C-alpha cells in the first residue's frame, strides 16, 4: 500500500471513529421520538418501537401506536387514553381505553364481563378490576395525582405478577386542626379512608399489610401502626375499609397524598 493510500485510509477511518464518538446519546434533549435498546433515536411511530420525548421505546403488543403512544386497538385518532403497557407484551389495568378492560390473565385488552355490584369487590371480576354500579367489570382507575413518579411500582402495577391488596376507592374523611395526636406545629390532622380487597385475605385478623404514603414530592414513607385509625374487615378478611391518620403543618389547608399497599396499585386522596 502506497503512503498516499495509507494516509487516505487513515484519514477516513479517523473521521469515521470521530463521527461515532461525537454522536450525542439518545435523550429527551436529542430525540423527539423514543430511544431503543441500542440508545438510538427512533421515530416512535411503530408498534415495535413506540414513544416520544426521548423516552424508552415501547412495544405495543396487542395495541397500536397512535400519536407516539401505545393505545388499544379500538382507540380513535383523538383518544389519548387506552395506553397498552409493554410489560411482557401485555396490558396494565386502566390503560385499555374507555370501552375495554385489561385481562391480566391473557395480557389482552378485552370487552368487560358482567358482575353483581351487590357482592364484595371485585365481585368475580378478577385481579385488577372492580365491579361497577351498572353491573359491568372495569379496571381499577389509575392514580391521577403526581405523587407517583412514572417509574414507581404502583403506577406500573401488574396484578398478574404483583399480588398486593388492591385499593378500589379512596377519600378524605377529615382535615382539621387538633389539640392532640400530632406534634406541635404540625397539628393539621387528616384522616384518609381506603376501600380494598385482597385475594390472600390478609385483613382477616384486623391487621393491615404493608402500606405506603407517597408524598407530593414523590418520596414515600411506610404507614406506622399508630397511624391506623381503624380496620373494618369483611368477607373473611378479603375486603376491608381502612382509615389512616396523618399530620401536616398547621398552615397547610390543602394536601394530596398517595397510598399503595406493597405490591398493589396506587390511589390518591385530596385533603380537605
Descriptive notes:
It is a single chain. The chain is mainly β. It contains one helix and 19 strands. It has one helix at residues 3-21; strands spanning 34-35, 41-42, 45-46, 49-50, 55-56, 64-66, 69-71, 101-103, 108-110, 129-131, 137-139, 166-177, 188-197, 211-214, 220-222, 228-234, 239-248, 255-261, 266-271. β10 and β11 (137-139) form a beta hairpin. The radius of gyration is 24 Å and the shape is globular.
- Average pLDDT for all residues: 84
Radius of gyration from the alpha-carbon trace, in angstroms: 24 Å
**Which range does the strand content fall in?**
25-35%
Q: Which of globular, elongated, flat, extended, rod-shaped describes the shape? A: globular
How are the strands of the biggest sheet laid out side by side?
12-13-17-16
Indicate how many domains the architecture comprises. Answer: 2
> Could you say which structural class the secondary elements and strand pairing correspond to?
mainly beta
Topology:
Blueprint lengths: L2 H19 L12 E2 L5 E2 L2 E2 L2 E2 L4 E2 L7 E3 L2 E3 L29 E3 L4 E3 L18 E3 L5 E3 L26 E12 L10 E10 L13 E4 L5 E3 L5 E7 L4 E10 L6 E7 L4 E6 L1
Parallel strand pairs: 1-5
Antiparallel strand pairs: 1-2, 3-4, 6-7, 8-9, 10-11, 12-13, 13-17, 14-15, 14-18, 16-17, 18-19
Task: Write out key terms for the chains shown.
about 270 residues; Immunoglobulin-like; 2 domains; four-stranded antiparallel beta sheet; 1 helix
In short:
With 272 residues, this protein is mainly β.
Amino acid at each position: 500500500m502506497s503512503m498516499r493510500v495509507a494516509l487516505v485510509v487513515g484519514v477516513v477511518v479517523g473521521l469515521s471513529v470521530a463521527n461515532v464518538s461525537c454522536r450525542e446519546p439518545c435523550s429527551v434533549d436529542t430525540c423527539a421520538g423514543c430511544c431503543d435498546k441500542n440508545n438510538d433515536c427512533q421515530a416512535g411511530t411503530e408498534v415495535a418501537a413506540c414513544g416520544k420525548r426521548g423516552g424508552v421505546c415501547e412495544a405495543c403488543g396487542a395495541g397500536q401506536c397512535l400519536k407516539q403512544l401505545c393505545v388499544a386497538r379500538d382507540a380513535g385518532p383523538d383518544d389519548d387514553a387506552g395506553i397498552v403497557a409493554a410489560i411482557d407484551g401485555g396490558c396494565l389495568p386502566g390503560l385499555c381505553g374507555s370501552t375495554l378492560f385489561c385481562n391480566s390473565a391473557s395480557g389482552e385488552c378485552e370487552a368487560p364481563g358482567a358482575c353483581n355490584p351487590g357482592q364484595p369487590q371485585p365481585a368475580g371480576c378478577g385481579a385488577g378490576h372492580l365491579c361497577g354500579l351498572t353491573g359491568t367489570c372495569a379496571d381499577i382507575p389509575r392514580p391521577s395525582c403526581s405523587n407517583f413518579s412514572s417509574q414507581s411500582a404502583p403506577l406500573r402495577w401488574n396484578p398478574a405478577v404483583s399480588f398486593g391488596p388492591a385499593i378500589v376507592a379512596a377519600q378524605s374523611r377529615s382535615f382539621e386542626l387538633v389539640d392532640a395526636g400530632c406534634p406541635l406545629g404540625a397539628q393539621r390532622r387528616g384522616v384518609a379512608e381506603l376501600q380494598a380487597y385482597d385475594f390472600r385475605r390478609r385483613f382477616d385478623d384486623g391487621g393491615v399489610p404493608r402500606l405506603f404514603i407517597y408524598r407530593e414530592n414523590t418520596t414515600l414513607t411506610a404507614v406506622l401502626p399508630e397511624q391506623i385509625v381503624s380496620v373494618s374487615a369483611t368477607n373473611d378478611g378479603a375486603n376491608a375499609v381502612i382509615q389512616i391518620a396523618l399530620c401536616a403543618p398547621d398552615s397547610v389547608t390543602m394536601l394530596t397524598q398517595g397510598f399503595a399497599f406493597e405490591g398493589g396499585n396506587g390511589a390518591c386522596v385530596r385533603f380537605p
